[in-house]
Amino acid sequence: xxxxxQTPRYLIKTRxxxxxxxxxxxxxxxxxxxxxxxxxxxxxxxxxxxxxTQRNKGNFPGRFSGRQFSNSRSxxxxxxxxxxxxxxxxxxxxxxxxxxxxxxxxxxxxxxx
Amino acid sequence: KNEVEQSPQNxxxxxxxxxxxxxxxxxxxxxxxxxxxxPGGGIVSLFMLSSGKKKHGRLIATINIQEKHSSLHITAxxxxxxxxxxCAVDNTDKLIFGTGTRLQVFP
Lengths: 113, 107
Known about the structure:
- The complex is a heterodimer.
- Helix content of chain A is 0%, strand content 53%.
- Chain A is mainly β.
- In chain A, the strands form two sheets. In chain A, strands 2, 4, 5, 6, 9, 10 and 11 form a seven-stranded mixed sheet that branches. A four-stranded antiparallel sheet of chain A has the order 1-3-8-7, with no helix packed on it.
- Chain B is mainly β.
- Chain B is built from no helices and eleven strands.
- In chain B, strands 2, 4, 5, 9, 10 and 11 form a six-stranded mixed sheet that branches. Chain B has a five-stranded antiparallel sheet with strand order 1-3-8-7-6, with no helix packed on it.
- The model of chain B has no long low-confidence stretch (mean pLDDT 95).
- Chains A and B meet through β4, β5, β9 and β10 of A and β4, β5, β9 and β10 of B.
């Protein structure tokens, strides 16, 4: 079956702009979680959605937001981009994260200039 | 102190060697994941453990809940095993990640 699909794979934005990243989970998976990976901070949890509800949120400013649609597809948005937002953004899906294997997408590489 | 500590940070091995990567954590967990990340970014889940031991091919993962410690073993290592191995613990709210172990296996 198809894996977790993230779009776009690569993008360059200017400081102050906003960006929207998309994640299509594996069919049947209701949990979608987002992570930020940087060389300095490693992998950090952003938020998790389950059946269209945000279940948990990491320690990130309000500029980072997300949502999940009824078909379990998810988007995350970062407004007023800063240079420090340059990172690999990873999405992962599972039937139910707490009890099940998680499957990661290939990630979206965001560069803010 | 980080909630999830991995050791070593970097590991170099000759093909065929037995590899061990360690993970210690300080929080209560519902499960522990071992992940593999290749250059380019994609992450693959190797194991999810809540107790005992699991084996898949040349990979073995163990966890000791009382000691809050897990190990990932690679038997008969191969150059294609070269990657970053990441330990992540699930505290039911979220995944908390270790900093990763960069493994290079030379022929």
